[in-house]
Design a protein that fits this description.
Oligomer: heterodimer
Structural class of chain A: mainly alpha
Largest sheet of chain A: 3 strands, antiparallel
Strand order of the largest sheet of chain A: 3-2-4
Shape of chain B: globular
Radius of gyration of chain A: 32 Å
Number of strands of chain A: 9
Distance between the termini of chain B: 29 Å
Radius of gyration of chain B: 25 Å
Helix content of chain B: 25-40%
Largest interface: A-B, 90 and 81 residues
Helix content of chain A: 40-55%
Number of helices of chain B: 14
């Protein structure tokens, strides 16, 4: 680590949460400015587009993103001497023609920003390496009296500097609901709530830890966190574009659920999804995992150029890989060098080259009828496996061939005897034969398949005449086996995968990202600003790319993933721009904490469950979410985490909560997508009216995760609550709050059905208990009185419409 | 103080206060409630945006209009059979277009049905209005309003397949998932309507537009700004009706109770989002009344209905949608988009220039013209921008099958504009002798977008949202120019 970096790091840790809004910045007027914290954001936002990394759009040959560019080559900064720095002159001049940024750019520096630039030059105009491109370092954990949890020590030391204290522990009812919704995406039952309260009274810490373990081990864990990952994987069940036909790729969705339930290390999780097919002796499951990058759209419209849309899918794969793992907007370099981050267009196409080399087939999978008992089964409470084991087409084919071989071996010795028998057969003899045998006889000898040949052999009685009773039994057994295999082969599940081409497809830089304008050819490679790929004589493949992403030397992946998990639990990441850790991104509010989390994740075998365990057992996570006047004044956006945040539930969980509260919930995990009722007319919103065969029975009440998702006509009750559409990777959901959401909860037939079931529950178990089903807490006197003015059905509807019911507090 | 945002904020704050003092009679006393709220820092500083994301917002500069009605002719109407008069095509019909026009160009269905022979124009053209504007016989009613509209003959787009081209016209990008024009507009200026959505979509014709709901998506903007399709059957808005077994009195009680319960929680937690939700429920409840009232055209005079050519007001049609569009802007809805299919006349048995083009022209002609006149009479045209056009035009070369048609064409096609700030009776741009390309300049889709935003007081370079590290704008990263030539 350079001294530069270390100094910057100390500065950034000290003043961690000073963000662009600068709400505490005024108190720091005398402090040395940090390039990384104070200056780069100003330059990046206002100057780099014309004076940055992108050579082609660089104006006047001047670059301000490097010290040598600004001082030695450009000569616009005189360190220590703002009055003789051209830069200061140009940003403060009253001559509109000379003013920077130019008024017609729509960009304008505030007086405060100009002053900061001036002071930074006065202080020597030191540049620093961007924090996110330097590897995370083990931070010192601040000491806070009587606070043991490292997360709390990081957070509270920061609060302390502002003279703030954390909020008290949330109520037990709030905690169990918060934890259940966050870990498994389902609310607790009243029984679970009261059991937890009771246990918590005896020994809170123990009760809480037991609850955490119980939830982490639940098979619903993989559904909740699977959805988190499927957003990023842009998963959906249709092809997108205008035709938007159905596709079969739910085995990939189930793979994600199972992998998360099994707590597969995030490194392996990454490698299998990006390059499972390239692993030595790749298993069927590893091939299924490569569905990750098959979740791109496919255009089936008439008249289109397939190559154009193949290219579009690879653009999407490059952008998604960059966003999801590196937290970088690599996609920006598709048409030109990145305007802000040090990624050249050539580097973009070198990444592209890794992903430009596949066939995109579907593989067929067949359930193993006699699944071998897996020793892992039952090890985890609730079971972590989905459905049966599968084998692929090749294995299935070889099983079929083995059976057919054996059949042939029985038949061949009788070939000539059989031909002779057939020749001598007269009409009477023929009529006496069974229907199947007669049917087989009608087929020309050369065209008979194995079944028909066997049938003839059986019908001829030659086996019996030959005294081969055993052979007859064997023949019948083999025939049955063959029939069984064939029928299994007919009902296999198909799933979309990647398969590497033996011969590389050449990749060219595309001028302006236009596939009809290829420029120089490039080989696969990674951006120079990040750690290098291991040296090798061969051109690297997708497998090397995947390994590079989770390499210990990668400064980004662990931070990006830890940040995104944090975001799920607090509503906002430590880095708010969860998919942009580059120059344009916001800087971390708690940089040392972010590094600590990233290194814990990496050093704990990339276990996501372990990281979640650490976060949810912190006081920071467990504190109340109520707004506090003293915090609101200093930290209105709760960046310092003096309290938890109230978060509107994700679209799917809103349905799941109503399903559980009403008692209709089906706990079944995995399997093909289902078709719960949707309002009439929804499917005619697209170009084609796709059929929607409403599921019956249990499948009507499955978790929303399993609802068939058309990209173009998504299920309205999910769409209205901001479920992503699968058109591009979604690393953070919007949480809107709209009248159409109100109409959905009030009037959607599905919610009316839930209300009718909840009404029965009110009649059986009472209003108070129904309230607990929805919110995990008992109603207040006032709340009860308000509700009691309604009849039972409308009480139920009111409960499902409460802001609290669709919110994690 | 004339900042509408501030006025709105004060209004909301007052409304909230009024609400607390008048209606919160249960539970806590109203004064205690108000003071609790103040104590939790929930007082007058609440930003209107957190209460109502659709609250009117200040524009970048004074606006010429506040409403947009976009009459989207889905499929790509032929400019050559409607507005772009090219007698040369009849003269040279059947002969190949000179190679210089088509060398290096890409077209849809390149490998199969693309032809290079020019196709003559069947409909006759006449000159209308004070400037002698050419309009074909297929659009007699539109011909009557040429002095009220600006015709742009040199529109240009980048994409030649339907779905991407429609997306391009609606979102400025051929890729799925970008915010649509209507979403940008409601995001940019908000809405004055407190009982209907800010962006409404109406559809007619045999099928939905290719690409479907992507054309009115909010993309990376919050779903608040998404277009809401008014449906032709059943509830005009999804889930609008109170459930069958619930009376309107019960529904009102329910909504009131939910509001009181949410208020309790707002006081307990201090979370502003609950205030937003209370607001959303109130608007939803109002929509339950206002949307059916909007759809009920029984109050319109027989004269109005016949001007639009509506024979049965209860039957879904383009004409009825035009009338609804007027009713929507009357009620303060900011962006109304009509889609009418199918203009894709390739020459096949169900989509050709002989039968189907005249038929669809008849379907849209009278009502489009009536809409302009009706808006004008009511003084609404001055505050509304009306746009007519499709995603691209058609080639001068024919597709000759059993009957005749034309392929998709992106280099020059016709749209028309009318309303506040738009010149009345102008024709902008000339095309070459075949109508293949512009003589000099083009009006690119980006320019059209910049112009629409400009009329609404929005600067296309400043209207943006940060997404995946990029500033996303309707007009993208390339230059766009406001079409000042059609502006008064």
């Amino acid at each position: 680590m350079s001294t530069d970096y270390a100094m910057r790091w100390m500065a950034i840790c000290l003043w961690a949460s000073v963000i662009a809004s600068g709400y505490v910045a005024s108190s720091l007027a005398d402090e040395p400015l940090s390039y990384d914290r104070d200056i780069r954001p100003i330059l990046s936002e206002n100057c780099f587009a014309c004076h940055g990394f992108d050579e082609k759009s660089r104006e006047a040959g001047l670059r301000l993103d490097t010290r040598s560019g600004a001082i030695d080559d450009g000569g616009v900064i005189e360190p220590g001497s703002p009055q003789s720095s051209l830069l200061v002159e140009r940003i403060t001049t009253s001559d509109a023609d000379a003013l920077m940024p130019p008024p017609d750019s729509g960009k304008e520096l505030s007086d405060e920003q100009k002053e900061q630039l001036r002071r930074w030059i006065e202080q020597g105009a030191e540049y620093e390496k961007h924090w996110a491109f330097a590897p995370p370092a083990r931070p010192e954990i601040p000491l806070i009296e009587q606070v043991a949890h490292p997360i709390d020590r990081f957070v509270q030391s920061r609060l302390e500097k502002q003279g703030l204290t954390p909020s008290p522990l949330a109520a037990p009812e709030t905690l169990i609901r918060r934890l259940s919704l966050d870990l498994i995406g389902l609310p607790p039952s009243p029984q679970e709530v009261s059991a937890f309260k009771q246990a918590a009274e005896a020994d809170f810490r123990l009760a809480y830890d037991v609850l955490v373990e119980h939830l982490l081990a639940s098979s619903h864990f993989g559904e909740r966190w699977g959805r988190w990952w499927l957003d990023q994987a842009r998963y959906a069940d249709s092809h997108g574009y205008s035709i938007d036909g159905e596709r079969e790729i739910w085995k990939y969705r189930d793979w994600v659920i199972a992998a998360l339930n099994a707590d597969k290390g995030f490194d392996q999780f990454t490698i299998e999804q990006l390059a499972g097919d390239l692993l030595p002796n790749a298993t069927v499951e590893q091939k299924i995992a490569t569905g990750f990058h098959r979740n791109t759209q496919i255009n089936m419209e008439g008249g289109v150029d397939p190559e154009q849309f193949r290219m579009d899918s690879i653009f999407d794969r490059v952008a998604t890989t960059g966003n999801v793992w590196l937290g970088l907007s690599i996609g920006c370099a598709q048409c030109h060098d990145h305007k802000f981050d040090p990624i050249s267009q050539e580097e973009y196409y070198r990444l592209f080259a890794f992903l430009n080399n596949q066939r995109e087939p579907s593989i067929k999978l067949y359930p193993v009828t006699e699944a071998p008992v897996d020793s892992r089964e039952g090890a985890v409470s609730g079971g972590s496996r989905i459905g049966t084991e599968y084998i692929d087409e090749r294995e299935m084919e070889s099983r079929k061939q083995a059976v057919e071989h054996a059949l042939q071996a029985v038949i061949t010795p009788f070939a000539s005897a059989l031909a002779k028998w057939e020749e001598q057969l007269d009409k009477i003899g023929r009529d006496a034969l069974s229907q199947e045998t007669q049917a087989a006889l009608k087929i020309v000898a050369e065209k008979r398949d194995l079944r028909e040949q066997s049938q003839l052999l059986l019908g001829s009685g030659l086996l019996v005449a030959n005294g081969s009773g055993n052979a007859e039994a064997e023949l019948r057994r083999l025939l049955d086996e063959r029939t069984r295999l064939l029928s299994e082969m007919a009902r296999g599940v198909s799933t979309m995968v990647l398969e590497e081409l033996a011969e590389r497809r050449p990749t060219h830089i595309l001028i302006k990202g236009d596939f009809t304008r290829p420029d120089a050819q490039v080989t696969p490679g990674t951006p120079a600003v990040l750690h290098p790929l291991p040296a090798s004589d061969d051109l690297p493949t997708r497998l090397e790319l995947a390994q590079w992403l989770v390499d210990d030397a990668n400064p980004l992946t662990a931070r990006v993933i830890a940040n995104r998990i944090w975001q799920q639990l607090f509503g906002r990441g430590i880095v708010e721009t969860e998919n942009d850790f580059g120059f344009q991104g916001s800087i971390p509010t708690h940089p040392a904490l972010l590094d600590w989390l990233a290194l814990e994740l990496r050093d704990d075998s990339w276990s996501l469950k372990e990281l979640l365990r650490k976060i949810v057992t912190s006081h920071t996570y467990m504190q109340r979410s109520h707004v506090r006047a003293d915090l609101a004044g200093v930290d209105p956006n709760n960046l310092l985490l003096g309290r938890q945040n109230r978060l509107r539930l994700d679209a799917e969980i809103i349905r799941d909560v109503a399903l559980v509260a009403s008692g209709l919930f089906s706990a079944k995990v995995g399997g093909p997508p289902v078709y719960p009722p949707i309002p009439e007319g929804v499917m005619s919103q697209g170009q084609f009216k796709h059929p929607w065969k409403t599921s019956a029975g249990e499948n009507r009440y499955r978790r929303a995760l399993y609802t068939f998702a058309y990209r173009v006509t998504p299920p309205p009750s999910l769409n209205v609550f901001d479920a992503p559409d699968g058109l591009s990777s979604c690393t953070r959901r919007i949480r809107s709050n709209t009248p159409l959401q109100a109409l959905t909860l009030l009037n959607d037939p599905a919610f009316v059905e839930f209300a009718e079931e909840l009404e029965k529950r009110i009649e059986r178990e009472g209003l108070e208990q129904a309230f607990v089903y929805c919110t995990a807490r008992k109603p207040t006197e006032t709340e009860l009185r308000l509700l009691e003015q309604l009849d039972a059905l409308n009480q139920a509807r009111a409960l499902l419409n409460l802001d609290e019911t669709i919110t994690r507090e | 103080m004339n900042d509408p945002r501030l006025n709105r904020r004060n209004e909301l704050r007052d409304a909230t206060r009024r609400h607390f003092f008048s209606q919160c009679t249960l539970g806590l006393g109203s004064i205690a409630l108000a003071s609790l709220i103040a104590e939790r820092g929930l007082g007058g500083e609440a930003d209107a945006k957190t209460i109502n994301p659709l609250a009117p917002k200040a524009t970048h500069f004074p606006a010429k209009v506040k409403n947009v009605i976009f009459l989207f002719m889905a499929g790509g109407p032929s400019q050559l059979e409607t507005f772009d008069y090219k007698p040369k095509l009849n003269e040279l019909s059947g002969q190949p277009i000179p190679e210089s026009f088509v060398a290096g160009k890409r077209f849809a269905f390149m490998s199969s049905s693309h032809r290079n022979d020019l196709l003559g124009v069947r409909p006759a053209f006449k000159q209308y209005g004070k400037n002698g504007t050419w309009v074909s016989d297929l659009l007699p009613h539109t011909a009557e309003i040429v002095d009220d509209i600006s015709i742009v003959k040199i529109c240009k787009t980048d994409l030649f397949n339907h779905a991407p081209a429609k997306l391009f016209m609606n979102t400025g990008s051929g890729l799925f998932g970008r915010p649509s024009l209507g979403a940008w507009v409601t995001y940019g200026i908000g809405s004055e309507c407190d009982n209907l959505p800010g962006f409404v979509v109406l559809q007619s014709g045999p099928r939905g537009p290719r690409g479907g709901a992507m054309h009115w998506t909010s993309g990376m903007l919050p779903t608040t700004y998404q277009g809401v399709p008014l449906r032709n059957q059943g509830d005009p808005i999804l889930n609008l009706s109170t459930p069958k077994n619930i009376s309107s009195v019960q529904q009102k009680q329910l909504v009131d109770t939910v509001r009181e319960l949410n208020l309790q929680r707002l006081v307990e937690t201090g979370d502003q989002e609950i205030a937003t939700r209370i607001n959303a429920y109130e608007m939803a409840y109002r929509m339950q009344t206002s949307a059916p009232e909007l759809m009920d055209t029984s109050g319109e005079t027989a004269g109005t209905l016949s001007n639009y050519g509506i024979s049965n007001p209860n039957e879904a049609s383009y004409a009825r949608n035009c009338l609804l569009a007027r009713r929507l802007v009357e009620r303060g809805v900011r962006f109304v988009q009509l889609y009418h299919t199918n203009w894709d006349h390739h020459g096949g048995p169900t989509e050709n220039l002989e039968t189907h083009l005249p038929a669809i022209c008849k379907e849209i002609d009278q009502a489009s013209a009536a809409l302009i006149k009706d808006l004008d009479q009511r003084g609404l045209l001055e505050e509304t921008l009306v746009i007519w056009g499709g995603e691209f035009g058609r080639t001068p070369m024919g597709e000759v099958r059993e009957s005749t048609g034309r392929n998709h064409h992106i280099d020059a096609f016709t749209m028309w504009f009318a309303g506040g700030g738009v010149q009345r009776g102008a024709v902008f741009g000339e095309t070459d002798e075949f109508g293949f390309g512009p003589v000099d300049r083009s009006a690119h889709v980006r320019d059209i977008h910049a112009t629409i935003l400009h009329q609404l007081g929005l600067d296309h370079e400043r209207l943006k949202v940060r997404f995946q590290g990029l500033d996303v704008r309707l007009t993208g990263v390339e230059e766009a120019h406001v079409l000042h030539d059609i502006l008064a």
